[in-house]
Design a protein that fits this description.
Tetracycline Repressor, domain 2, mainly alpha, Arc Repressor Mutant, subunit A, homodimer
Chain lengths: 235, 235
């Protein structure tokens, strides 16, 4: 809970078999500890809320000493933001590749590729939502705010202003309302409480997500775009 | 954290100026304390997560003794479930009256009345979402699970199976997917992190909610219903 987060670990004398030096060959016990801490953080921060998870619990779940959190990541904030950055790398890469291979553009197609990738990483939208929900105006959360801004470029997701100005949307559609409902459909399936899912008889499986993606992209196409635009979209 | 929640307060001898007796005339200091605890609970549980709020904080915010939580509500669970039940009464009443006065039926119209009522109670969907997100299989949360089931009858909200069987939905629409996206649009605007809202330039004001309601009901009508059904809906 430091007012100014330290991006670098504590200066431990490097002669002392520093884990940062152990890059070649097999993973040392120490780099395994770092990896275990990342895995423990992913598991605990997906399940519970940020403030509820203590460094002691994180270390216990990872089977390491709590001091290693400070050594590798500076603080709990540092561990959380490193974990979420490392989690984001393959997700963003897959999303980018899939978008490119499908020549996907527009929110309906983006939603298809997004759900397809998130089916393999269902914890990711939940983590991003939690990260975004922290009070980023607080000094202690600045490191987390920075991680959020590095991972998510919200500008890239603001499709609807562009579509509005291109005259593709129905006359009555407000682009901000459209954007908000688009975010709702993207994020909510990964946040929805089990009690709702059980009542609906739904499991957030890859198969269900694929079906939901197809239907939601149709919902957007019919519900927000002019009929003559929709009829040109791939079915 | 009792395995079996007690619905009644501890048996304090009634001769001793019990607050339960002070029903007539001005509110006594004690009934004011009960009210202050309800208000403190609403404020703290809206802002923060259930596990993060302690009875000590609740009492401090209410300006009362923590022992009164046990006296009036049995436990933190009891205070939370009582607060949410009492919060729900006017919300559900307004929703029912508005639905009746507008002769509203169907999800598009329901969404209009729902947003109109929630504009005056923006904390309510958030509290319900938090209540629904608690692990209700845990014994300590049973009292909360019971409150949830009393307040929300999910069956009443499962419109889309009925519409599907009445042949009103587009052929390709799956009623479970439709239902999930309907819930997403209903709940997400009250959960969305400020960082998204700021980027969108949106404030969740009554005016914005009215606009969103109108647009989302159109989105559902055009996106899920057969065109011949939609054309009969009020514009």
């Amino acid at each position: 809970m430091k007012p100014t987060p330290e991006p670098t670990p504590d200066p431990i004398p490097e002669q002392k078999n520093s884990p940062k030096k152990a890059k070649a060959g097999r993973p040392s016990q120490d780099t395994q500890s770092r990896e275990q801490l990342i895995l423990a953080a992913r598991s605990l921060f997906v399940e519970r809320d940020y403030a509820q998870v203590s460094t002691r619990e994180l270390a216990k779940k990872a089977g390491t000493d709590p001091a290693l959190i400070r050594y590798y990541f500076g603080s709990k904030e540092g561990l959380f933001s490193t974990m979420i950055r490392e989690t984001a790398v393959p997700v963003k890469q897959q999303l980018w590749q899939l978008n490119r291979s499908l020549g996907a553009d527009g929110p309906a197609n983006f939603m298809l590729t997004y759900y397809r990738v998130m089916a393999a990483h269902p914890h990711f939208p939940r983590l991003i939502f939690k990260l975004a929900s922290l009070d980023q105006s607080q000094a202690k959360n600045q490191e987390l705010a920075q991680a959020f801004n590095e991972i998510i470029n919200l500008e890239d997701l603001l499709f609807f202003d562009k579509f509005k100005s291109q005259g593709l949307l129905r006359e009555e559609v407000d682009s901000r309302c459209a954007q908000l409902s688009f975010f709702a459909m993207m994020v909510f399936p990964f946040l929805v409480p089990d009690i709702f899912l059980n009542k609906l008889g739904v499991e957030i499986s890859p198969e269900f997500l694929q079906q939901l993606a197809t239907q939601n992209s149709q919902l957007l196409a019919h519900g927000l775009f002019k009929p003559e635009v929709t009829s040109h979209e791939p079915k």
